[in-house]
Amino acid sequence: MRNDVIVTTTTQDDLNLIVAALSAYQHNTRYRALYLRLVRQIERRNGAVHMPLLLATDG
């Protein structure tokens, strides 16, 4: 499988919105992997050491 980058630029607001939407699907491992990659991208963009994750809970 190729992992070509398709979207190379987004605004910070767009990226935050995407991450917020994906946080609801973290129980699915495929979405969780994407969510975590985007969170790391936000961290790199902000120069943050750690950004708290919004983890889905059961129930």
Could you please describe the fold and organization of this structure?
By secondary structure, the chain is an all-alpha fold. The chain has a domain at 12-46. It is 49% helix and 0% strand. It is built from 2 helices and no strands. The chain has helices at 12-22, 29-46. Helix 1 runs antiparallel to helix 2 (29-46). The longest helix is centred in the middle third of the chain and has 18 residues, at 29-46. It is globular. It starts with 11 loop residues before the first helix and ends in a 13-residue tail after the last helix.
Question: What layout of secondary structure does this protein have?
Answer:
Elements: H1 12-22, H2 29-46
Low-confidence stretches: none
Portion of residues in helices? 40-55%
Shape: globular
The number of helical elements comes to 2
**Protein structure class:** mainly alpha
Largest sheet: none
The fraction of residues assigned to DSSP E strands is under 5%
Measured distance between first and last alpha carbons: 35 Å
